[in-house]
Specification:
Shape: globular
Radius of gyration: 29 Å
Largest sheet: 6 strands, parallel
Number of strands: 18
Strand content: 5-15%
Number of helices: 32
């Protein structure tokens, strides 16, 4: 036996276990170790790009579970880990299980879920408290929500003729009938639906009901904030919100915010709250910068000790990678506030070491952060509340890892000097330079990974078109001819195939004797390479393609025909033998989908099941699925395997900056960095300018957020519009920061001197100024500037 310093005897298995724990902890960097050493209470973790958030969270979770397991195998409560996407759930769960396996511990004592999944679980287990009866309620789809919004707009217009008249008159009345009809169309189809969508999500995600918005709007009037304004934006928003909620409930629909609200209603009950708090020992939250106030409130309740006034909560995020706040209710200022509160208590961990990028790329990202903060901050003597302006970035620099860091190839050697900046003559020259660079890099290093990140999908479409047809555009390098694949992610996302393929096969199962449906089903099977290529028109005309006649009288047929017949027979047998709710999953397996596609099919099946709960007939399923395919609003599930598709060697991936978050490549190219897009400016479309030099939706967003942040005097229309512009500017710079920090060995940035005003017409070129960050980087790093 071995004796410890306090004379307590430790057995050999315990020594081995302690060594395993120490070995696992030693893999972590200092910021990650703060998570691993956590014993309770609130802890904020501010993590820079590439610092290993998910790895640190997984190992910290395993170490906590190990300590609890060895202290008491019956320790009450589970560790709840919450993240935002299903792919992140799968990834985090896999890493925790692997870490527990290394410690020879069973994969138990923890749960990983999306935040909405956790909320729905709480609400579903207490229907009498939540008010949600899932047997009678359906998750509203985007297309259904859009229809409800259009309906609530029409109802509001009918009920509020005077307010409608004020909107029609706008800044200046125009009694010409054609102009009046045009304004009516703009209000009904664009302005008011956009206002409803934005205001409802902003208010509901913060726990505000329609009557709360109404009260806020009355306070605006009483305080004189609407003096000189033609209309009260929040009053209009409150009316739209009230009608939307009525329509939502009358049709038995719920949305994602309803799940959070329902869970909170459950937790208002003392016995239910104590039950859930006793079942959850602690909460670890990932991507905390994207949480809404309502979501944060739910997690804080669950993380509160049922007896002691203690919050067992770790929130991990990076406010400098908050890139969703202009089109979702996410607001990074809430996580920033949490970090500041924890910092005053000595409970802030900074994961500021990252092994992803070479030193020059780190220097460029840190410089960009400081430059933007210096230029876009409140004036001296002016508070952030007065100006509506806070620093776009949390002042946290990225640092390289130590020399003994366990990450292989941490802070890799640069390609060239690691940073290249150029200002080509036009966008076609930009593409030519990218093609040459990619050819040189990937030919020299076939295992290298490269990506072009763009601000909007239309730029990606243009890039893919030019790179796939280089000769047509006078470009000498043909990447595909030298074995480099061009993968336009936007193209794949635009044509998500899972719902369409499933719909095609279900239509065949519903009407197997239809030649059109049979041919379409065979086309899917052929495209998936499940049956050999053959003349489908001839195959459809064969009398026994579908084997419904007596199998005792076989008719000799070629093998390709027999294989098609076997597949059709298997599909029809499933139609007869399986319950309808299992058909989509069966079809996904039949089509031999990869894991990402299977996950998307599972999501599709769940969604269709919810939408057809009241009428699960094949007719209803086909109608719901057809509507979804026509609306093109289904987002496929992304898994680790799907992310691997974005980072294959000898492939040039083209994707948006938003979608690139969480990924990295050896060589990253950022073309088309023009001021018009980064930071850009809020625009009022010409057709809506009769209302004023602002949009109702952005004014409502800024006013609601001001109220949520506890401002005593809410901004008037002009001030709210200016704040919305500040919000957009900050987020665009954070988006650029995210894009820059995807690069490992080479970051290539450019702004062509001639570019299109709109990327819907890329051929119409004119002089366009660069993003202001680019000239600043060129001045700071003159050695990185290339001749275009």
């Amino acid at each position: 036996m071995v004796t410890s310093s306090d004379s307590q005897q430790i057995s050999p298995p315990e020594i081995e276990q302690n060594l395993a724990l120490k070995s696992l902890r030693d893999r972590l960097r200092p910021g990650q170790q703060r998570m691993a050493d956590w014993q309770g209470g609130a802890l904020a973790v501010s993590a820079v790009p590439g610092s290993g958030k998910s790895t640190g969270m997984a190992i910290a979770s395993a170490l906590l579970l190990a300590r609890r397991f060895h202290s008491s195998k019956d320790a009450p409560g589970q560790l709840a880990l919450v993240t935002f996407t299903r792919s992140a759930v799968a990834n985090l769960k896999s890493k925790i299980r692997q870490s527990l396996k290394e410690l020879s511990l069973p994969p138990q004592g923890f749960m990983v879920s999306t935040l909405h999944g956790l909320a729905l679980n709480i609400a579903a287990q207490h229907p009498e408290l939540s008010g949600l009866n899932l047997s009678r309620m359906t998750l509203v789809s985007p297309s259904q929500s859009s229809r409800l919004i259009r309906a609530c707009v029409e109802q509001w217009l009918s009920a509020n003729p005077q307010a409608y008249q004020q909107l029609l008159e706008g800044r200046q009345a125009d009694h010409e009938e054609t102009e009046r009809l045009r304004r009516q169309s703009v209000l009904r189809s664009e302005v008011l639906p956009e206002l409803a969508f934005t205001a409802i999500h902003e208010a509901k995600s913060s726990g505000l009901l329609p009557q709360n918005l109404q009260e806020i709007s009355r306070n605006l009037e009483l305080r004189g904030s609407l003096e000189g304004a033609t209309y009260n934006v929040l009053e209009i928003a409150a009316g739209l919100y009230d009608r939307y909620q009525t329509l939502l409930q009358s049709r038995g629909y719920i949305d994602y915010d309803d799940m959070i609200l329902a869970a909170l209603r459950v937790l208002e009950n003392e016995s239910a709250r104590q039950l859930w708090q006793s079942q959850i020992y602690a909460v670890f939250e990932d991507e905390a910068q994207d949480s809404s106030p309502l979501q944060t409130r739910l997690l804080e309740i669950l993380a509160t000790h049922p007896i002691e006034p203690r919050l067992n909560l770790i929130r991990v995020g990076d406010p400098n990678q908050a890139i969703n706040s202009t089109f979702t209710p996410a607001d990074p200022s809430f996580f920033n506030d949490f970090c500041q509160r924890c910092q005053t208590q000595g409970r802030l961990a900074e994961m500021d070491q990252a092994g992803r990028s070479t030193q020059m790329i780190i220097d460029a990202a840190n410089f960009m952060l400081d430059w933007v903060n210096d230029r876009y901050s409140p004036a001296a003597g002016e508070t952030a509340q007065q100006s509506g302006l806070t620093q776009p970035f949390r002042p946290q620099h990225i640092h390289p890892v130590s020399a003994h860091d366990p990450q292989s190839d941490a802070n890799p050697a640069a390609e060239g000097i690691g940073l290249e900046i150029c200002f080509p003559k036009d966008i076609y020259r930009s593409v030519a330079l990218i093609a040459q660079q990619v050819a040189d890099r990937l030919t020299h290093n076939p295992e290298g990974r490269a990506a072009v990140l763009v601000r909007e999908n239309r730029q990606g479409r243009f890039l893919a078109e030019v790179l796939r047809n280089p000769a047509h555009y006078g470009i000498e390098v043909n990447l595909e001819e030298i074995g480099i694949k061009i993968y336009d992610v936007g193209d794949r996302d635009r044509h998500s195939h899972v719902p369409a393929e499933v719909l095609t096969l279900l239509q065949f199962l519903d009407r197997p004797h239809s030649p059109d449906y049979l041919k379409a089903a065979l086309r899917v099977l052929s495209d998936r390479q499940l049956i050999p290529p053959q003349d489908l028109n001839r195959l459809v005309s064969l009398p026994r393609t579908i084997p419904l006649s007596n199998p005792a009288r076989p008719h000799p047929s070629p093998e390709p025909v027999l294989r098609a017949r076997r597949y059709c027979a298997g599909l029809l047998r499933a139609r007869l033998e399986l319950p309808q709710y299992q058909l989509i999953s069966f079809l996904a397996m039949t089509l031999q989908y990869d894991p990402a596609e299977l996950a998307s099919a599972d999501k599709l099946a769940e969604r269709i099941s919810q939408q057809t709960a009241a009428d699960p007939s094949m007719t209803a399923i086909l109608e719901a699925l057809g509507e979804l395919v026509r609306s093109e609003r289904f987002e496929p599930i992304e898994t680790d395997d799907s992310e691997a598709r974005y980072t294959r060697p000898s492939q040039l991936t083209i994707m948006t900056m938003h979608k690139a978050k969480g990924l990295d490549w050896d060589y990253v190219f950022l073309p088309f960095l023009h001021e018009a897009l980064i930071p850009g400016s809020l625009r009022v479309l010409p057709q809506a300018q009769f209302l004023g030099d602002f949009t109702l939706s952005e004014v409502a967003r800024a006013q609601i957020r001001a109220y949520i942040h506890g401002e005593t005097t809410l901004p008037d229309i002009e001030t709210a519009w200016n704040r919305a512009g500040v919000l957009k500017t900050a987020e665009e710079f954070r988006l650029l920061y995210v894009a820059m920090t995807r690069a490992r060995k080479l970051l290539w940035m450019s702004a062509a001197r001639q570019a299109p005003f709109t990327w819907s017409k890329p051929e119409n070129l004119s002089d366009r100024p660069p993003c202001p960050v680019l000239p600043a980087l060129a001045r700071q790093f003159p050695q990185a500037v290339l001749n275009g």
